[in-house]
Design a protein that fits this description.
alpha/beta; 6-stranded mixed β-sheet
Length: about 475
């Protein structure tokens, strides 16, 4: 796999025929030298060592990073192109595709539009089962287990390895992974008499009630802003215990998910009962408008967002907020927040050189130094276990403790606390979002909301499996 990177023994200079001396783009001096030297002189010249398989390789990467995160990603791409890539005659072209990248990859495969497809796509880990159904998707198991690989499964935190593992194989490379955090306004909590963040949802209810500010019939400051969509729902479900999977087959990891079990085991109901308690305070905003900006403006004291929002919050209100672990649904919960986010998917378009070059760039992306650059610019977790030991990372965590909370929570979380690999991701998100709005508006009871979500998601899964 690395043959194009290894230098081989020197090759002998070819004897140039006099009749060809004037051809090509040689300078006059080079032409004169070629015509005056004897064949014996030419064959004894020393030629520098050259790598095997150094034909150009153009690798296309699709991603969804923008703002400071996108700038950090582009800086890594440029450094590769001007250094390691240039040395190996590899060039990376990065293309911003937003969150539609995976859908576009699937469309390209279905229409056999191979020329306009990427070699690497940064896609959500939850879409791995669908991505692996395409014949050109490569499982990374063979690459990462090869002795010549610069990285191995030990390169990554165990929870991140499980995040990209499907049916026993590591089908992606962890990259752009995140974990949910409770963000809170430090001064607001202090003024309300709290010296730490809430650790359970019962405490969260107490804090929200105390932190809200009401002027007549209007709430001028909410204690919490969080809209429950698929992301929030699955996080609070899997956090309850190691057996709390959103769907069967360990959330679709040991085999394709065929039904929801969060309704059967009571985890979904337990979460909705706590949401009901938040609603009763009158200080819970259950719709997200401009959640980051409103939090920065002091319109709510706390919010729950992905760690990937840290970079944006630094730009909006640096030194005014802090982060904490995701509050427990029940005080005895043991699993912790689930890992989410993205991974690197690799595609084989029939060019071995290009495939190997793409993997070389993957190795480069997850090096400790590049993970430092990417993580500190964004809030995404540094996926390489060695990154946290870099002197500059240690210093950064000392100066930005809110970032370290995300990593600490990852290390404290169970391997089984994972976002599900749900085959109907888009449908599930719509079903949960719509149902939870009905619930928060008082149109559904806890049991009715649970039953509606379970029934509709199971119907969507049935339709998917029938069609596939």
């Amino acid at each position: 796999m690395k043959k194009f990177r290894n230098l081989v023994a020197a090759i002998l200079a070819l004897v140039m025929v006099l009749s060809l001396a004037g051809c090509g783009s040689s300078s006059n001096k080079e032409t004169a030298d070629a015509t005056t030297k004897t064949p014996a002189e030419k064959t004894t010249e020393t030629v520098e060592e050259v790598p095997v398989n150094m034909e150009p390789a153009d690798v296309v990467v699709w991603h969804s990073f923008s703002g400071p995160t996108g700038e950090a990603f582009e800086s890594i791409v440029n450094d590769y192109n001007n250094g390691r890539g240039k040395d190996q005659n590899i060039h990376i072209t990065s293309v911003f595709q937003g969150y539609e990248g995976t859908g576009k990859v699937v469309l390209a495969y279905q229409t056999k539009d191979y020329d306009n497809a990427p070699d690497i796509n940064v896609g959500l880990t939850s879409t791995i089962p669908s991505v692996m159904e395409m014949g050109w998707t490569v499982s990374l198991d063979d690459f990462i287990n090869n002795p010549s690989s610069e990285i191995s499964k030990d390169t990554f935190y165990p929870a991140l390895v499980r995040a990209v593992t499907y049916e026993g194989k590591m089908d992606g490379i962890p990259f752009g992974n995140s974990i949910p955090l409770l963000y809170y306004n430090v001064n607001m909590l202090k003024e309300a008499g709290f010296d730490r963040a809430p650790e359970t949802m019962d405490e969260l209810i107490e804090y929200v009630d105390a932190l809200k500010i009401v002027d007549g019939n209007d709430v001028t400051r909410y204690g919490l802003n969080m809209q429950v969509k698929r992301y929030q729902m699955v996080e609070f479900v899997v956090s309850q215990s190691e057996d709390s999977f959103f769907g069967n087959n360990e959330g679709g990891r040991t085999a394709p998910m065929t039904k929801i079990i969060a309704g059967e085991d009571g985890t979904m109901k337990a979460f909705l009962e706590k949401i009901d308690g938040l609603l009763a305070t009158g200080g819970y905003k259950y719709i997200e408008d401009n959640i980051k900006e409103e939090f920065a403006q002091g319109l709510h004291a706390m919010t729950i967002m992905s760690s990937s929002k840290l970079g944006a919050m630094d730009a909006l209100m640096a030194d005014q907020y802090m982060t904490a672990y995701l509050p427990k649904v029940n005080s005895g919960d043991t699993s912790g927040a689930g890992v989410g986010g993205s991974c690197l998917n690799l595609f084989d378009r029939g060019d071995e050189r290009r495939l190997e070059a793409a993997y070389d760039f993957m190795e480069y992306l997850v090096s400790p130094e590049n993970q430092y650059t990417f993580a500190t610019a964004s809030g995404y977790l540094p996926v390489n276990v060695e990154t946290e030991n870099l002197a500059e990372m240690v210093k950064y965590y000392e100066e930005h403790p809110q970032y370290k909370v995300a990593l600490d929570q990852l290390k404290d979380t169970s391997l089984y606390a994972q976002e599900p690999l749900d085959l109907t991701y888009g449908a599930n998100n719509s079903i949960i979002t719509d149902t939870m709005l009905e619930f928060c508006q008082g149109d559904l009871s806890v049991d009715e909301a649970v039953n509606q979500m379970v029934t509709q998601i199971n119907d969507a899964l049935d339709e998917y499996h029938d069609a596939n």
